[in-house]
Amino acid sequence: MAHIDYFFSTLSPFTYLTGTSLAEIAAKTGASVTYKPLDIMALFARTGGTPPKDRHPSRQAYRLQDMERRARRLDKPLNLKPAHWPTNSAPSSYAIIAAQNAGGGDLAGLVHAFGRAVWAEERDIAEADVVRDCLSGAGFDPALADSGLLEGAETYGANLEEAVRRGVFGAPFYVVDSGQCFWGQDRLEDLELHLEGKL
Q1: How far is residue 4's CA from residue 179's CA, in Å, rounded to a whole number?
Q2: Contact at 8 Å (CB) between 149 and 91?
Q3: pLDDT tens per residue across span 46-98
Q4: In total, how many domains does the chain have?
Q5: Would you say 180 and 167 are in contact if contact means Cβ atoms under 8 Å apart?
Q6: DSSP state of 111
């Protein structure tokens, strides 16, 4: 059975646009997934990337056009300039780590809920009430927002180090145990074909 390490940021619009598609592909192909939230700005700094606000105006303009097209194609609401972006992604990431460790809920749904909160609902995922609401909505104990903070912080940092070591440079990024890497929401079809042995 194939395994996918899923590196992502809860702040990324393309993580949001991924929705629950990765989980659906994994279920269809029999693959397992480990969710690895990380600090995307720190990843950029470590791997030669540039934060969106520091990119050339032509790159910023294209990014917004591409985001809007992808959202339309996927029929997902998207605010191109959300009120709470960027914000501190650590609380939402720690919650995902705690939820993955606890089990029993919809992890893909939780990741998507954080993205939807930022990019469609004008909510600040750094706020404890928002984190608890997303946990509850995905079938997890909202108290996970307040537990395992040290472990969450350690895992969050370790995810960044692992990402750099394994050649990850953006989000969402999918690393299959076959050695194949796929970057971006728009590479999910290629990932699925690879898992099916067709690519």
Answers
A1: 10
A2: no
A3: 999 999 999 999 999 999 999 999 999 999 999 999 999 999 999 999 999 99
A4: 1
A5: no
A6: H
In angstroms, the first-to-last Cα distance of the chain is 16
CB atoms within 10 A of CB 189: 12
Extract the tokens encoding 26. Answer: 């994994």
| 61 neighbors 179 (Cβ within 8 angstroms) | no
CATH of the domain at 25: 3.40.30.10
92, 65, 77: which is closest to 122 by C-alpha?
A: 77
pTM: 0.97
Structure tokens given for 56: 């050339």
- What's the length of the chain? 199
- How much is the CA Rg of the chain, to the nearest whole Å? 16
Which residue range forms the structural domain that includes residue 47? 3-195
* Contact status, residue 33 vs residue 111, Cβ threshold 8 Å: no
pLDDT at 167: 98
